[in-house]
Write a structure and sequence with these properties.
By secondary structure, the chain is of the alpha+beta class. The chain has five helices and six strands; from the N terminus they run αββαβαβαββα.
C-alpha cells in the first residue's frame, strides 16, 4: 500500500474508535507518541476554560513497582472558582477535584483515561451536583473528542 493509503486507513480507524467506557472511566487509545498526545490534551483542556493545576510525573513511581513505561503523566485541571465552590459546599467531592487525566504510553500508542464523573451521580441527590457532574462529563468527552480530531488531522497531513 502507498503511504497515503496507510494514513487514510489510520485516520479512519482513529475516528472509528471513539470513546471506550470501562469501570466508570472514559478512555481513548491513540496511535501516536505520548508526548504529542499530551500536548494536544493540555491545549484542549485550556481551550475548554480549565487551568492546569499540576502535572504529575508517574514514570519513576511505576518503575519502582516493576512496571515499564516510557511516559506516564497525570494532568490535574479545573476551574478555580468551581473547585473552591464544590470543595466548600460538597466536601465529599474533594477527592475528585481537580479533575485528572492520565496520559500513558503503551508501545506505539497512547492511552488517555479519566474518571467518568457521572458514575458519582447516584451518590448525590442534590440537583446542583447532578448538573455539575453532567457538565464535567460533557467537557471531558469534548476534550477527548478534540484530541482525537486533532490527532486525526495530523495523521492525515503527515508527509
Amino acid at each position: 500500500m502507498r503511504p497515503l493509503s496507510h494514513r487514510l486507513i489510520a485516520v479512519l480507524l482513529l475516528c472509528a474508535t471513539g470513546f471506550a467506557r470501562a469501570d466508570g472511566m472514559l478512555m481513548m487509545r491513540i496511535p501516536m507518541r505520548a508526548e504529542i498526545v499530551f500536548a494536544y490534551a493540555k491545549s484542549s483542556i485550556e481551550e475548554h476554560g480549565y487551568s492546569v493545576a499540576h502535572i504529575q510525573l508517574c514514570d519513576g513511581g511505576m518503575t519502582d513497582f516493576g512496571y515499564k513505561t516510557d511516559f506516564y503523566r497525570v494532568l490535574f485541571f479545573g476551574k478555580l472558582a468551581e473547585v473552591r465552590r464544590i470543595s466548600e459546599k460538597y466536601p465529599e467531592l474533594v477527592s475528585y477535584v481537580p479533575l485528572k487525566l492520565a496520559v500513558i504510553a503503551e508501545k506505539d500508542d497512547t492511552l488517555l483515561t479519566v474518571l467518568n464523573p457521572e458514575v458519582l451521580a447516584p451518590y448525590f441527590a442534590d440537583a446542583e451536583v447532578q448538573i455539575q457532574l453532567s457538565r464535567w462529563h460533557s467537557d471531558l468527552e469534548s476534550i477527548l473528542d478534540d484530541v482525537r480530531r486533532s490527532i486525526g488531522k495530523r495523521i492525515a497531513h503527515a508527509d
